[in-house]
Amino acid sequence: MSSGTHAHAHGAHDEPPIYGYMAEFDHPEHLVEAATAAKNEGFTDMECYSPMPVHGLPQVLGYKNRVPLMVLLGGITGMVVGFGLCYWVSVLRYPLNIGGRPFNSWPAFIVPMFECTILFASLTAVFGMLALNGLPQPYHPVFNVERFAEATRSKFFLMILASDPRFDLQGTRQFLAHLNPVTVSEVPH
Amino acid sequence: MSEQAIAEDVHNELIGDGHTYGTISDKITGIVLTDPKKTPLAWVAIVGIASMGVLMLLGTITYLVFTGIGIWGNNIPVAWAFPIINFVWWIGIGHAGTLISAILLLMRQEWRTSINRFAEAMTIFAVMCAGLFPLLHTGRPWLAFWLLPYPNTMGLWPQFRSPLIFDVFAVSTYATVSILFWYMGMIPDLASLRDRAKHKIARLFYGMLSMGWRGAARHWERYETATILLAGLSTPLVLSVHSVVSFDFAVGIVPGWHTTVFPPYFVAGAVFAGFAMVLTLAIPIRAFYGLKDLITEKHLENMGKVMLATGLIVAYGYAIEAFMGWYSGSPYESFVMYNRLHGPMAPMYWALLLCNITIPQLMWIKKCRRSIFWLYFVAMSVNIGMWLERFVIIVQSLHRDYLPSSWHDYSSTIFDWTMYVGTISLFLFLFFLFIRFLPMIAIFEMRMLVPRSGVTGKAGPPPPLGARAPTGGHAGDKHAAGVGSGGAH
Fold it and tell me: How far is B198 from chain A (nearest CA, A)?
């Protein structure tokens, strides 16, 4: 997310003075309810952080999960590559006539094809997931918040980004405070 | 409600009382983040002994490469002996890791959670040990890349109709996917270690490995999707790997090998051996690191049950082999059975039946499944039995096949044993490095098991939507406190 879009969305300033506000919760249920409340309030540019997957949150935040399609395409590519390799070697490049048996003996190629399918699909699943998540990413503003170390231990966080069109330095903090969090922290850039 | 109560009962058996998200995280990260000076002495001792074994392995390999594989006992007609026995034994052990992490995940078996991580590590190290054997058994390991399809000046290409090339594809895919699955599973836990680590080097190390993971909800969603898909891909993969290994035998025409029961019987045997190895490792480690409330008796009992079930499939395999020896009407096939029962290596076959069929029947008894001693006894017996099984299949079939003029007895040499014991040491060496430097239990998955009833939050649910009344008290942060009476948003 470039600072250019922030400025555009925010309108009044060139760049918002902070990255966003972050509210901390003790329980996953509270996080889901807080995120739902923020959504109903009209916020769109927000993110939740938790030490384990919290079911229901992605539906609240709303986005499209493209991992399955990528993995399917990866698997199909692997299958085609596997068959292509066997066919090219056994029929075109290095045909061996063994008692007049067909060169394109596809049933024997099933195993290499299968293994290539699994290999390509698995590589796509892992590296595709990382790429879509934008990882590896050494720096992110959320790490500036000291309490955020708890996001990988026991606490649940809701962040509203300053790039949100409805973001307001006073009002958004106040809104988060009303959600009954443990704390509300400012996230510097 | 009763369904929920049952679910909570199950949870309580899988995780000790009084655990919260925080205590689980601290307990598991604490093992890794122990000050180096406070590393347990027993750990130092085991790694010390294991590294001596690794040196022995390196010495053997050096001598082997300089001299040739004649230093081993295998010779015509028994061209496949220890190297292939050990290869199949190690690959089989690895399979339990994939089974626990993939198949049990798909079946939503929550009890897998505390053992999956180190079972996966076990898979990777077992596959590494397994890979050494065929590589060195080629005789000229520096030319092992000839196994791969690549354009070369000789104009040669691999034969894609051979199970031996299937094996290259299956095992290398298996190793790659296992490492990916293991590493991906660790990313959130590595982030926990990064955030807990005090020392600069530790923070840098775990920081780089965790790749900036921050637990964002969208990230979790993609992560869970990738995990489930990888599990779905690994499940047929693990079945294919040992099926392909069994094709190495079943496609050959050697009596005792040429049977259709081999693929399922090999897969069941692999899981059988793998669970035995998980128990062999889990029982001492949970006692030593005080993890009895995370790896509970329930886990051990379930593993005992899986051993019993797969052991019965293996027993069925033995029964079918014996039956086909008679039913096939082939004198060569029936001679294989006769030779197993009465030949020069008959004690191996009888010991196999004892270790793999008779002793595991103890697992029918709940008392034995709940007893550390009996579980360990059965697990060790299966470890030995599964090695004997591969010995019986390989050596007993090869040493007396069709032509009595080419019969020859087999005996191993000291280098067969230094190589075998060396790989066991390598396995232990890598495994103990793993439990010292990486989280041996999947922390984030354990957090998901924390019983709901155990959560004692003081804050109630947030106010209903639209309610704008400040509730004071709970918003304890100094920033938040200041805005209680600010303007409406």
Answer: 12
